[in-house]
Amino acid sequence: MLFVLRMLLMGLHFLVAGALGLLLGLCRPFNPDNSRLCARLYALPAMGILGLRLNAQLSPQFEHARPCVIICNHQSNYDLFVLGNIVPPRTVCIGKKSLKWVPFFGQLFWLAGNVLIDRGNPQRARRAILQTTETLQHKDTSIWVFPEGTRNKGQGLLAFKRGAFQMAIEAGVPIVPVCVSTYVRSMNLNRWDSGEVIIRTLPAIPTAGLTSEDIPQLIARCHGQMQAGIASMDAQLRGFTAAIQTDAEQH
Question: Any idea where the Phospholipid/glycerol acyltransferase domain is (predicted)?
């Protein structure tokens, strides 16, 4: 019953937030800070509706690290509501072209200055990547990318695609890894307290002086660091849950 109520409220919230975000986008189209503001519109009420607690372990430099390429693991559609809480200023996202057909959300995603890529058309995808490289170099704006290319559904970090790393090298900007704990497996929307999500930023990885030949090694470095970070956060949450259960049994 609680799950159904939450889904109804989330559906209503998604439409209201989308309408407000679309209005914002129409008032100042393609402003790169629209993305952050719209993300907050979706995320802040949603965390209360879903009953999720956020533990954001962000470095002090994260809000001011631009321009950079932010890479993050991608678990589910709920990522919008979880990660929307921490999107830094002047940060736009890369998404698939089909998003533009989602009512309200697709239109505001475009008006917020985000980049839509047609993955089925390599030439158009390449042009979009060139556009984002120019944005990184000249517009004081960061790019948020899910390098797995699809949702991993909490089954572990998938292999990374090259695009984000190619962009960072061509623009000469650092890569900032962001890790999210595996909340999809533990989230229970039939409880008032659905669970805790940890988000942790890792130290920036410079790309100055690197070339395309360095991409495989760069990918391996980022993937390994993020995998270790996610495992550490998952272990932290398991320890916290075990401590609560032990305390409850003792009382």
Answer: 68-183
